[in-house]
Automatic annotation (TrEMBL):
Species the sequence originates in: Nannocystis radixulma
Region (Disordered): 567-618
Biased composition (Acidic residues): 591-618
One Pfam assignment: PG_binding_1
Name by which UniProt lists this protein: Peptidoglycan-binding protein
Amino acid sequence: MPSPSRKIAIGTGGRRGYLLPWHEVPRGAASGRGELDPWWPGAPRGARVRVRRLSRFEAVALLRAAYDDPDSARNLRALVEGPSVNGWDRESTVERLADRLVGGSLVLVELHEAGPGWHGTGFTPPRQAGDATDGPTAKAWSTVLRVKVILDDGAPLAGAVVTLAAPDGQNHEGPASRRGEAELANINSDGPGRAVIRPGQVPRWRWGDDTMISSEHIFDFSFGPPIAADVATGATRTIVLRRPEIERVEGDALGFALDSALLIPLDDHLAPTPALATALARLQRAPTLRLLIVGHASADGSASSNDALARRRAECTRHLLVGERDAWVRLASDHGSPADVQRLLRYLARVHDWPTEPTRVDGTVDAQVEAAVSAFQSTYNRVFDADILVDGVVGVETLGALFDVQRHELRHQLTALDVAEEAPRWFTATGVASAGARVLAHPGIPAANAAPGQRRVDLLLIDDIVAWREPHGLDRLYDVARFRTIPIAPRTLGRSDLVVQLVDHYGRILAGEPYRVITDEEEREGTSDDQGVVVERGLLGGFARLVCGEAVIVVDDPYHLTAKQRHDLVPPRDHGDDDDDWWTDGPPPAADDELDDDDELDDDEFDDNDDPADGEDD
């Protein structure tokens, strides 16, 4: 039987409240069913009992309100054990009892009375000894409309503007607390109410926070119109807003040099074309996704210059992705630099074996750089069957040729991934956006934690149902979204056959010549036959190299040289604090030892333009 010493005032008209240890509540009463007698002798006929465990917010609010009544305050203090309880202030008592209510050692028992004395505004029960409702200060019965607004990873939406409409017609609007809670108290009728939420500042999603919170009220995060939910009075109602999930292609190869707007390889093993091919492949395999290219800049410089540079980076990526040659050449002419060309020439030399090593990357054009440019122009003419001027000068024709080489590599990546070359589906009208330096280190994007990581583009794959659009601002999208990294698709060519005839620089057949074939997936050894022919069937992987003595035959893209006399590389020279790798070729062979184009390989035995369908590796 509830003890009168544990009764508290929670509203008098037909409603009483008791704090009881959970083990003292009979099973039938705890479920809201069963007879109240003999557990509650003298309970009015037709009375209803409800047993509740409270949230901390609700417990503190109820206890503070009850403490305003002297009898209830005395009963509350009596529930707190300890020799110094008489010296405790109101907040100490409330906090301790709230801990017990939230922990479950105490529960709230509410008795709702109904009968002849019931009137819409409340019920005044007969006087009973110990009633907290005795006296002229008795309070009218009331309830509360309370909501908690959180994101699906548990982060509270503190500061969100919440409008509450009670069933009795009362309304209240204000910011949510730091726990995301808002309430409308002193409501004099139970029933359904309404909560309208306008999200404010949103805590960013943190890498690894994959917990999904469940609730009876779950909505997709709205970037525009407010969210409205029907909620009932009484207990706290939790409203969960789902973060939109956005896929982001792994960005290690999508970086830019300082002040550069051209997307070119910054490292021998970090070409951007695999990342671009990965984005196109993902788009074709997921029809609801749309692509958004977001440019970023470091925090150096003014906001306006950073924003312009970031946009040019996004536009350059788009030009390369969709084959906008003239636009790329204009951008490179207006905003490129000799250092950008040097980086691209060095990449072609080290990865694709073109004779274009510029020896350094410092933006200075001298005889060595001009020679590398001339070598590029000459090789481009031969491989692409073109006739650009070979003069060592980087003009519009040469910039167009540099674009062609990158596009050809991208097409080769798409072929390897079995992806058709189609225009992307854009998330916005242009598919590009600039974040400038506004989106700095982001906990959901590990590659963006360092300052150099801001000189990049993000390839974002966004479902078309996401409500974000450009007027809402990129900062908001990065704050709200849950990012998922898409790894760059490995380049796979499948199995291929290698058939090559070995000859020396005089055209003599090299019969019985030992060789090694090396790909990125396997390595084989053998000797050529009596006609100098090497036949390797069913090779796995790409970037095949056939090593025979001092010669290395590179079998990869059609624009590669098929044979090249390698020069010994000397150690890098010390050039101060420059982080770029500086290399120089050793002394070239004597003039009569150099390979002529006609002597490298017999055209009948190996043709750069062989069709892959013939079963032989290009």
